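FAQ
Q: What does a multi-component entry look like?
A: The components come first, one per line:
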Amino acid sequence: MLTNYGYIGLFLIAVVLFTLFMVIIPIALRFLKIVPHNPNPIKNSTFECGMETIGRTWVQFNFHYYFYALIFLALDVLVVFLYPWAVNLRALGFASFVAVIILVAIILVGYVYAWKKKVLEWK
Amino acid sequence: MATIELNIYNLVNFQSIPPDWPGGFWWHWLFFTVVIIGFVLTMVMGVIYIERRGMARMQSRLGPNRTGPFGLLQPVADAIKVLLKENIVPDAADKLIHWLAPVVAFAPALMIFAVVPFGNGVLLADLNVGILYVVAISSVSTVGIFMAGWGSSNKYSLLGAMRNVAAVVSYEIPLVLAIVGVVLISGSLSLNQMVVAQDVPFILLQPLGFLLFFAAGCAEINRSPFDLMEADSEIVAGFHTEYSGMKFAMFYLVEYAEAVAISAIIATLFLGGWRGPILPPWLWFVVKVIIVFFAMVWTRTTLPRIRIDQLMAFAWKFLFPMSLFNLFITALQVLAGWPTELVWAMIIVNFAVMAILVLVWSKLFFKLGRGRIEV
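Then the predicted structure of the entire assembly, as tokens:
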């Protein structure tokens, strides 16, 4: 089994090297004068349809993302618990099904509450 | 020496090698690394051609037809063009993050193929948690895209990246829940085992699951109609506004590599992967991937882009409840032993359940929003 993870790890290294190689090709070509490189202040300014950028870009963002992230976290943890159950359902039988329904129901209370509180509406 | 020759012979004939075979490890790894990278790049070129030509025909245009016969060399011409273009990095950008973003976004798209079987046991690593690995690794691309949006120091880019994160976070849940249905029937997480278990393609046993996975998958990889993060009518080009040259090409590649990856996963989970009569398994696999991708192109040309609030409402108030229904109905059927004994009954019942649920919930969707879709 560990062999398979060895494959994955080696493959990750190969893929990252390949990707870096692809990003580095144009840099190499730039030194060979094949790819042009003539920066100037106008070209290197931030693109905003001809306007000057006002203020900083890295501003604070909509608070709504926080609620979505919170609900996502709860539901994703739930889903991770569902996987081992799903693989073994035939062996575990009907009792496990009831147990999972109870587990999902507990999380669903929060989901319904969030829906009623209009958290799921994007404003 | 004899072992090595035997191994090459086996690999060329697309037969599986036990991973503990002495000397076979490195050959296996090298062969599949080259094959996977080559496969993805070729498929990306192919699907770009299919998308441009197919979309053009659907919009009563001709599409690219000047480079080579039938415009077949258009992707090659594009690749050479982007390779020779100037690389512009804005002064205000966070240089390192701007450089690393394409790498972080592209690597996961390739990594998905490590566990996708091209034939019986013909895959890089037959992980026993295969589909969980796919779900985990496919989310990493989002980090790359957010890095691109953040590092560009452009408000449009940042907006696009934030939208992408919101979409991925929302659509992850229905996507993963739709997979649980397949896991219930096949009783395994390994992709190869799932294909072996598909005597009947799971699209027949899980029609609702297929629809949910298709919609959520399209949203995950930001294909139209869910392509809000690069909505050109609102935020220029979204997260890759400030990218040019090869780094822009990388993002273009990521988009299509992910589309191929999702098509491959759909083909493996729902359409029977490499299984099929007469033709060799890998060809069946490629044909199925292209069919799924064509369906994506078709959706793209048919449906208009949706608003961000509709995007979120669709995920949380339509797809999520549906996927829970699908999950529990499938679990009950599996407990009753239907997938092995009453296959035909299961197909009919599940199609009926799909039709009723989709119709009823669509009505509810309107009613709960008092005539407006967005609630």
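Q: Is there any commentary attached?
A: Sometimes. For this entry: Chain A touches chain B through 70 residues (CB under 8 Å).
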